[in-house]
Write a structure and sequence with these properties.
There is one protein chain. With 255 residues, this protein is an alpha+beta fold. It has one domain. The chain is 28% helix and 26% strand. The chain has six helices and 14 strands. A hairpin with a 6-residue loop joins strand 1 and strand 2. 34% of the residues are buried. The model has no long low-confidence stretch (mean pLDDT 88).
Length: 255
């Protein structure tokens, strides 16, 4: 009999038994084994080096949500998020990895956005919900609309087999001196970024914050053109190509 995992639910904050939350949902291409690496094993790795870590058989995820939050968010939003992912996969496949047009997406925007936010609760620590009660209310009330300008959400096509996720972090652009505060989730076929009182770490990211303006039962067709961004390193917000990474490394070694 599996050992019961207890802790604080990352959404509602109650302390008790936790259930395993797939991030993203299992049917959204998250049912195969993955290598889960520790940060200390990734620092200094190049884009072509094999990842060392522990094999996680059931896909990416963790014990982050109480059974009630897991079941509610899964039944309210999960199916529609999976459909969003499958459409992205089809677009990516038909375009042979170069989706340079604006393609139609058939979507329940509010449901998809709320599943994305549910995922961000899971990748952040259990105290994240205490500091972001507006997001808690937004997710746990399926019909709740609109968000504070504090929160912005972005998406991109992910073309790398290196997956990454990070809780809220801050990065500094050494050239512009701009500071970006954000959290990131990267999987296939999409990567997601949530910013907090901040502009996005890359201007190519496509904003989907406006999904919060739709009603829960509102279905629509959107023509969306997303950027294709690589994620070869563990660094959140880093979308350099392999060639750019190697070039920057050589330059830093020469300075």
């Amino acid at each position: 009999m599996p050992r019961e995992i207890k802790g604080k639910c990352h959404i509602c904050g109650t302390v008790g038994p936790l259930s395993f939350e797939h991030i993203p949902p299992r049917k959204a291409f998250n049912e195969r084994p993955v290598i889960k690496a520790k940060l200390e094993d990734l620092i200094g790795q190049g884009p072509n080096e094999p990842i060392r870590g522990q094999i996680q058989q059931r896909g990416i995820g963790g014990y982050t949500l109480c059974p009630r939050c897991n079941n509610n968010t899964g039944s309210w939003y999960g199916k529609y998020f999976v459909e969003w992912c499958y459409q992205g996969f089809e677009i990516f496949s038909r375009s042979k990895g170069n989706p340079y047009l604006a393609y139609p997406i058939y979507i329940f925007p509010l449901r998809v956005l709320k599943q994305i936010i549910t995922m961000f609760f899971s990748v952040n620590g259990p105290e994240f919900c205490d500091r972001n009660l507006e997001l808690v209310k937004f997710v746990l009330n399926k019909k709740e609309k609109y968000l504070s300008p504090k929160y912005r959400f972005f998406v991109y096509y992910n073309i790398s087999n290196r997956l990454r996720s990070s809780g809220v972090c801050a990065t500094l652009n050494i050239y512009t001196r701009n500071i970006f505060v954000f959290s990131e989730i990267n999987h296939f076929p999409y990567g997601y970024v949530m910013t907090l009182d901040s502009s996005p770490p890359d201007q190519r990211l496509f904003e989907i914050t406006h999904f919060s303006k739709f009603n829960y039962n509102e279905f629509t067709v959107m023509h969306i053109k997303l950027p294709v961004l690589p994620t070869h390193l563990w660094i959140p917000g880093d979308y350099r190509t392999k060639e750019e990474i190697i070039k920057d490394r050589i330059k830093s070694e020469q300075e």
